[in-house]
Design a protein that fits this description.
Layout: H1 7-16, E1 22-28, H2 29-34, H3 37-41, E2 50-55, H4 59-71, E3 76-81, H5 86-90, H6 101-113, E4 119-127, H7 132-145, E5 150-158, H8 176-185, E6 190-194, H9 200-206, E7 212-214, H10 217-221, H11 229-232, H12 243-257, H13 266-270, H14 281-289, H15 297-315
Parallel strand pairs: 1-2, 2-3, 3-4, 4-5, 5-6, 6-7
Helix pairs in contact: 4-6, 6-7, 12-15, 14-15
Length: 316
């Protein structure tokens, strides 16, 4: 979710669900240690619960990055062992580490020893020509022996050669059944399913077999599904939230941060799907995308909302 789940996106998603665990974009350990920490790591208090996702393969650096992340108040640190991009491979981290379970175990140990918050693993079912029926159980056994208890498994292989990162999200076939079998084989582990999930009915179905599910692209492109998560997944009382209320909240948020944070302009892109499936959704997207880029973000959102309301009134 690099370039997608920044802090503005996460604040928006938190408006829709109070209980879902939100994840940052993957941040490389070196960037956490040597980069602009405030920009990379600071987040709004309302984002809790929130996990910091880190990429790397050097246990010492990962331990330091985890320590720093914990000091910023994150609720969890997640080691990414699933990203298939060329840039990630060249740094010897991400999905290529599926072939180095012992190193992942070493990284986990170093990270967990450096912080009091949980360290979790996000991985694929395998890479390239691996026989995942054999290699995935072996990977889980090796890494869990080091103390890891929580694994988020993207139920696709990652093909490190021959497929782009975009294609790796859709072309390799999904194997949910394999992930379910891992829960049977490793009942003491928390196994969370990721990959291709699109609706809450799937969540409710998979929850009968697994410890959780992770939404990625679906939560970004059709974010309103998050508004039902608290009631249908966490058994909270149904809320009376509506999209117009969320727009008002978004405008207030933008007014608070836009003057001192130039990255707030990304919020416009993150909220394009808010009215997905509703009458006027196309008008909303067009009004946002065609709005004056020099205007403050709050005004761009307000103008798009006014356009949408006018459309409704004309139809009535």
């Amino acid at each position: 979710m690099m370039d997608w789940t920044d802090r503005h996106c996460r604040v928006f998603h938190r408006m829709l669900s109070q209980r879902a665990l939100l994840y940052t974009e993957m941040v490389v350990a070196d960037a956490v240690i040597h980069g602009k920490r405030e920009f990379l790591l600071e987040f709004h208090e309302r984002e809790h619960p929130i996990a910091l996702q880190i990429g790397g393969s050097d246990p010492v650096k990962l331990a330091k990055a985890t320590e720093i992340g914990a000091s910023y108040g994150y609720d969890e640190v997640n080691l990414n062992v699933g990203c298939p991009s060329d840039r990630v491979q060249s740094g010897r981290f991400g999905a290529c580490l599926m072939a180095e379970a012992a190193l992942v175990a070493e990284c986990f140990t170093a990270m967990q020893e450096s912080a009091d918050i949980p360290v979790t693993i996000k991985c694929r079912i395998g890479i390239d020509k691996q026989n995942v029926e054999e290699t995935l159980p072996a990977f889980l056994e090796t890494v869990s022996a080091a103390g890891a208890k929580h694994f988020i498994i993207h139920a696709r292989k990652a093909w490190l050669e021959g497929l782009s990162p975009k294609d790796n999200r859709t072309i390799p076939p999904l194997d949910y059944d394999l992930v379910r079998r891992m829960k049977v084989e490793f009942p003491h582990l928390e196994i969370v399913l990721n990959g291709g999930l699109e609706n809450l009915s799937q969540i409710e179905s998979e929850a009968r077999h697994l410890d959780g599910v992770m939404f990625g692209r679906a939560a970004y492109h059709t974010p309103w599904i998050l508004s039902q998560v608290d009631a249908r997944v966490f058994a909270q009382p149904a809320n009376d939230l509506n999209r117009d209320d969320v727009v008002v909240d978004l405008i207030k948020y933008a007014e608070l941060v836009q003057e001192n944070d130039r990255s707030t302009k990304a919020l416009v892109r993150h909220i394009m799907g808010l009215f997905h499936g509703e009458a006027g959704a196309r008008i909303w997207r067009r009004a946002l995308s065609e709005s004056d880029k020099d205007l403050p973000v709050s005004k761009r959102i307000a103008q798009a909302h006014t356009t949408l309301i006018q459309l409704r009134q004309e139809k009535d």
